[in-house]
Structures are given as structure tokens and as C-alpha cells.
């Protein structure tokens, strides 16, 4: 470990890899409302935050847990479609709270595709957030609604039925979802969000 009169220990959250303080300072200095997206292994969190002295004020937020509790989402809450829906839900709530634009706060960028899906949900809810067109990879475009899950399920069922049963056992047995109709589940939940928010 380094020692000496000029040595200064880094802040705990920086050492843990949780906060990039230089990036955060720039965002706070902008004095704009931030769209904060954070992903864990099983969930995605989207918050609309206003920076204030003494602590941030959360104007509105959405968590992927809410999808299964309030909006009839039966699939898991840690995939790309659920991330998109969470972002969309947060965007609708922000519009209702009178927020029309924000800047993106990604923090330290983990779980890239799910974070981008949540961001796309915010944009589709008509929250204006500046970004570059190259920010979204083309491979992600057809995955927001779960098309990739549906296509893979159909492929496996036809080519390797045993692997299909094993791979989608959680959907088939526990959650009682037909993965071959995943897009239908997505659309149903999206419509439920639109009507309830």
C-alpha cells in the first residue's frame, strides 16, 4: 500500500467501483435533471433526479419489481424486455410529473444492453435526452420486445426439444409462460402500463 505525506486514499465508492466522481461532478454542475439508470443482476432501477445541496431529490422512479407486482409481467425482471418496460414506465411517470427533458446519468456502466434498453424506454416515452445515434448497437433493435427470446425458443423446440425443455424450464414450469409467445406478453404489459399510468 502507498504511504507518504502526499498519499491520499481514494473515496470508498470509487475503490468499490460504484461511483465515478469526476463524471458525477460534471453532471451536477450542469444543474439539469438527471435520468439515472442502474442495473443489478436481477433488476433495473430508473430514477428521475434533481441535484440539490444536502442530497438529491428523486422526482419519480420505477423498478422492474413493479412490473410483476402491478402490471401483470410474468417473466423475470432481469432481461432486456423488462428493462425497456421499466424505462418506459419511468418516462411516463416523469411526463406526468411535468418533466420533459433530462440528461443521462449511467454511473459506472455495467449490464450495457439492459441499461440501453431502459434508456430506449425513456426515449419512447417522449423524454428528451441528448445522445448520439451510434450509442445504440443495431443488434439491440429487435430485442426490446423479446423477439430474440421467441425466435430462440422456436429454434430450440424444433431442433433440440430436450434442450428446449431444460433451457426454458423456468418459463414453462414455474412461471407458466410460453416462450414462443413472448412478444405477446410484452405487448400486453406495455398496454397495461399505458392504461394504468
Q: Distance between the terminal alpha carbons, to the nearest Å?
A: 53 Å
One letter per element, helices H and strands E, the order comes to: HHEEEHHEHHHHH
Shape: globular
CATH topology: Nucleotidyltransferase, domain 5
Uncertain spans: none
Strand content: 5-15%
- What's the helical proportion of residues? 40-55%
Number of helices: 9
Total beta strand runs: 4
Number of domains: 1
**Structural class designation:** alpha+beta
Q: Rg from C-alpha positions?
A: 19 Å
Biggest beta sheet attributes: 4 strands, mixed
The CATH class turns out to be Alpha Beta
Widest sheet: strand order?
3-2-1-4
The CATH architecture classification is 2-Layer Sandwich
Mean pLDDT: 90
Question: Nutshell version of this structure?
Answer:
46% of the residues lie in helices and 12% in strands. With 197 residues, the chain is of the alpha+beta class. The chain has a single domain (26-129, 144-196), classed as Nucleotidyltransferase, domain 5.
Structure overview:
With 197 residues, this protein is an alpha+beta fold. The protein has a single domain, classed as Nucleotidyltransferase, domain 5 (2-Layer Sandwich). The chain has helices at residues 12-15, 21-29, 65-70, 80-96, 112-124, 147-159, 161-167, 169-174, 182-196, and strands at 34-39, 44-50, 57-63, 103-105. A four-stranded mixed beta sheet has the order 3-2-1-4. Helix 4 runs parallel beside helix 5 (112-124) and helix 4 (80-96) runs parallel beside helix 9.
Produce the secondary structure layout.
Elements: H1 12-15, H2 21-29, E1 34-39, E2 44-50, E3 57-63, H3 65-70, H4 80-96, E4 103-105, H5 112-124, H6 147-159, H7 161-167, H8 169-174, H9 182-196
Parallel strand pairs: 1-4
Antiparallel strand pairs: 1-2, 2-3
Amino acid at each position: 500500500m502507498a504511504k507518504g505525506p502526499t498519499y491520499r486514499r481514494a473515496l470508498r465508492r470509487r475503490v468499490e467501483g460504484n461511483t465515478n466522481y469526476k463524471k458525477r461532478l460534471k453532471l451536477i454542475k450542469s444543474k439539469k435533471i438527471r435520468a439515472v439508470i442502474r442495473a443489478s443482476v436481477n433488476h433495473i432501477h430508473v430514477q428521475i433526479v434533481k441535484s440539490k445541496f444536502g442530497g438529491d431529490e428523486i422526482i419519480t422512479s420505477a423498478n422492474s419489481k413493479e412490473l410483476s407486482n402491478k402490471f401483470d409481467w410474468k417473466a423475470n425482471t432481469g432481461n432486456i424486455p423488462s428493462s425497456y418496460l421499466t424505462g418506459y414506465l419511468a418516462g411516463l411517470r416523469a411526463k406526468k410529473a411535468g418533466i420533459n427533458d433530462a440528461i443521462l446519468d449511467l454511473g459506472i456502466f455495467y449490464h450495457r444492453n439492459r441499461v440501453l434498453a431502459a434508456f430506449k424506454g425513456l426515449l419512447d416515452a417522449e423524454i428528451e435526452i441528448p445522445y448520439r445515434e451510434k450509442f445504440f448497437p443495431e443488434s439491440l433493435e429487435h430485442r426490446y420486445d423479446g423477439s430474440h427470446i421467441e425466435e430462440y425458443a422456436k429454434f430450440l423446440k424444433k431442433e433440440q426439444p430436450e434442450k428446449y425443455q431444460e433451457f426454458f424450464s423456468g418459463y414453462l414450469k414455474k412461471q407458466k409462460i410460453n416462450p414462443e409467445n413472448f412478444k405477446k406478453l410484452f405487448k400486453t404489459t406495455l398496454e397495461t402500463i399505458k392504461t394504468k399510468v
